[in-house]
Amino acid sequence: MDFSLFMERYGYKILLGLFALVLLGFFAFLGLWVYSMFKFFGGIAAVVILGYAIHAFLVQRRVLDATAEAHGKYFYDPNYGKKR
Fold it and tell me: What angle do CA 9, 10, 11 make, to 5 degrees?
């Protein structure tokens, strides 16, 4: 079996397996981080994790939207490509 036939037959399964391993590793690392925070800090860890989640989903989103709007206003030329 040559390499192209091997990749055609098993390539997507290998890539899917690697992607699943990366995702599993990410969630395992996140879970260990949360577990260590609870073990080390106790109840304060819940407040820290909740505060970080609120910041990530509410504040950071608005900051990124405002940055994108400002860049669009100053760096986008609506007349680009049009003949004068």
Answer: 105
